[in-house]
Design goal:
The protein is α/β, with parallel strands linked by helices and about 280 residues long. It has one domain: Rossmann fold (3-Layer(aba) Sandwich). About 45% of the residues lie in helices and about 10% in strands. It contains nine helices and six strands; from the N terminus they run H-E-H-E-H-E-H-H-E-H-E-E-H-H-H. A six-stranded mixed β-sheet has the order 3-2-1-4-6-5, with helices on both faces. Strand 5 and strand 6 form a beta hairpin.
Length: about 280
């Protein structure tokens, strides 16, 4: 009887080690598959204060310490001046990690609130303002790559968002050149599931900072997609992973994009010099 709590702790530690090993393996696989990190890279790791970016930074630090190549990590977070934002939390945590970090202060919260009517989705404008600020700072510090904390589920959700609301077959790649051509954006968590990252963040007790601008709003299109995928996952376990694999297994000849496949010059090998049979019923 007295060994119960001790046994529970050992089991929890075993489960955590399995989870950490799985996440490290998946991040390492994404890095290898897409050549996300190379020798001499200076990577600006964007920290929102959410579970995903916290896990990304911690895993990248861990992998850097055992990687066969040298690369730099610089943590950057954006203080958007939201009401009641706990501005001391992230600096205090980042101080413990022994890596360079910067806190960028820009009042995007007021800009978004002044432009977007109450009750309307703020995610789009907020994201553009945040991205512009971060990309500009990456140039200032000489970072050649920018790491974002999007995971497998984000990528699948984005594919459905673009299909349902944008009429595009488009998701998020693990590696992307920015529109201005100056930066390479990488997503080291591309193969990681949200549930694994949530469990990891809880076990590590990262200092999570909620976002008042997007996550708390109801009826967002992304929330609708999330609910749809969760329902599918309950009914058909593994469906999200299957959809994700499909994004890397594309048959352009079986889609409808004429820029990706040359349908116009597609020719068969029939011989129309052969006469048609006289008998209308052909026994094959």
């Amino acid at each position: 009887m007295g060994h119960g709590p001790s046994r529970d702790r050992r089991r929890d530690r075993l489960e955590f080690n399995k989870l950490r090993k799985r996440l490290r393996r998946l991040v390492g696989k994404a890095i290898a598959d897409f050549n996300l990190i190379e020798a001499g890279d200076r990577i600006m790791v964007c920290i929102s204060g959410g579970k995903d970016s916290h896990a990304m930074l911690e895993l990248l630090i861990s992998l850097r310490d055992s990687a066969p190549v040298d690369f730099e990590l610089v943590a950057v977070t954006l203080d958007q001046k939201q009401p009641d934002y706990p501005e001391e939390v992230l600096p205090a945590y980042l101080e413990t990690l022994n890596i360079p970090f910067y806190i960028l202060e820009r009042d995007t919260y007021s800009v978004v609130r002044s432009v977007i009517p109450e009750g309307k989705t703020t995610c789009g404008l907020c994201s553009r303002l945040r991205r512009g600020t971060l990309y500009g700072f990456a140039e200032q510090i000489g970072a050649n790559k920018i790491a974002l904390g999007h995971h497998r589920d984000d990528i699948v959700e984005t594919a459905f968002l673009n299909m349902f609301f944008g009429g595009k077959l488009k998701a998020m790649p693990a590696k992307l050149r920015s529109d201005d051509g100056k930066h390479i954006v990488i997503r080291p968590l591309a193969y990681c599931s949200e549930s694994d990252l949530a469990a990891y963040a809880q076990a590590k007790q990262f200092p999570i900072i909620p976002c008042n601008l997007c996550g708390t709003q109801e009826n967002l299109q992304r929330q609708e997609i999330k609910q749809m995928l969760r329902a599918w996952e309950r009914q058909y376990p593994g469906r999200t992973e299957t959809i994700f694999r499909a994004l890397g297994n594309v048959a352009t000849s079986h889609l409808m994009d004429r820029d990706l496949f040359d349908f116009e010059t597609l020719q068969g090998e029939g011989d129309n010099s052969i006469g048609l049979p006289d008998i209308r019923v052909v026994n094959l």
